[in-house]
Amino acid sequence: MRNAYRWKKQLNYCRKSERQEPRNTKNKEQKSRHHLTEALRNGVGHIGYSIKRDERGKGYGTAGLKLTLLEAKKIVPEDEIYLRVNKDNIASQKVMLKNGGKIVGEDEGHFFVRIQKNT
Q1: What residue ranges define each of the domains in the chain, with the CATH number in brackets?
Q2: Can you give the pTM of this predicted structure?
Q3: What is the spatial distance between Cα 62 and Cα 25, in angstroms, rounded to a whole number?
Q4: Fewest Cβ atoms nearer than 10 Å: which of 29, 54, 56, 80?
Q5: Distances (CA, A) of 114 to 10, 22, 47, 57, 73
């Protein structure tokens, strides 16, 4: 099952705080998967991100996804960027919608979002 979630290449975009602790903690992380397996196509999609709890609400998610989309649009073969978001994660839904996302489906706990490459 783990192999279904592997990808050939991965891009990471990380913003590190000027007030960073010595442990090198990340404030945010963006990941872009170049090629989708069937499990990724029907699951988490091309891009995933997380924001450190105390850094949320500062626009990092919206800005980070925007930057990740610029690169992803150059390299993914599909006409759309695939994303998935938990239904109870309103902030992440807003991030995706601000970046041109459209909800195209859902399951019990998630919305499936697509962003056109030509936008």
Answers
A1: 2-116 (3.40.630.30)
A2: 0.72
A3: 20
A4: 54
A5: 19, 38, 11, 23, 12
